[in-house]
Design brief:
Elements (H helix, E strand, L loop, with lengths): L2 H4 L7 E4 L7 E4 L1 H5 L1 H15 L6 E5 L2 H13 L2 E5 L9 E7 L4 E7 L8 E9 L3 H12 L3 E10 L14 E6 L1
Parallel strand pairs: 3-4, 3-7, 7-8, 8-9
Antiparallel strand pairs: 1-2, 5-6
Helix pairs in contact: 3-4
Bound molecules: adenosine monophosphate.
Length: 176
């Protein structure tokens, strides 16, 4: 068996109960990115899924989406665009609103970061309810870009995030 086949990414995903609030089991990926073999394996697998989609840009949301997204973009030879909370980006932005458990939140990208016809992969570390991923697809499309796929390290399938992403090509490496 190759070393690669022996690596189970779940071995470096830590469950943290009641974080950030009671009842939530937080999937902590910091052990995965701190281990060189597991981090590389993760980027290898993301690359395999992403490359056939021929993206120009990886769009990642702060903050953990920057870690995998930046490494993946470099591997693929594409650009990286950050989606950030309001007030963080210095240039002209476009904005999308998404629902939280209580209330709403907003994400922004630079208005000149994505152009008409740009092929974009929307990335985040975890797909939970799908609200933030959906907002990112809206940001891409506001700017005339094409979402060629959504790519996650972890998917919490029991939260049915894919229901908000019908019609898009959604992949994840680990599903719970
Ligand atoms: P959602 O919009 O519900 O899909 O939430 C996605 C965002 O919240 C992502 O940026 C995730 O990193 C984070 N998130 C939500 N639930 C969890 C969880 N149980 N463990 C780790 N991250 C989570």
């Amino acid at each position: 068996m190759s070393q690669r086949a022996a690596l189970d990414l779940r071995d470096r995903v830590r469950d943290v109960p009641d974080f950030p609030k009671p009842g939530i089991v937080f999937k902590d990926l910091m052990p995965l990115v701190a281990d060189p073999a597991y981090f590389r394996e993760t980027i290898d697998r993301l690359e395999e899924l992403a490359r056939p989609k021929r993206p120009d840009i990886i769009l990642g949301a702060e903050a953990r989406g920057f870690i995998f997204g930046g490494a993946l973009a470099d591997r693929l030879g594409c650009g990286f665009v950050p989606a950030r909370k309001p007030g963080k980006l210095p240039w002209e932005t476009v904005e999308a609103t998404y629902e939280l458990e209580y209330g709403t939140d907003r994400l922004q990208v630079h208005a000149d970061a994505i152009r008409a016809g740009t092929r974009v992969i929307v990335h985040d570390d975890v797909l939970a309810t799908g609200g933030t991923a959906r907002a990112k697809t809206e940001l891409v499309e506001q700017l005339g870009g094409e979402v060629v796929g959504l790519l996650f390290v972890v998917e919490l399938a029991f939260l049915n995030g894919r229901d908000k992403l019908v019609g898009y090509d959604v992949d994840s490496l680990i599903s719970y």
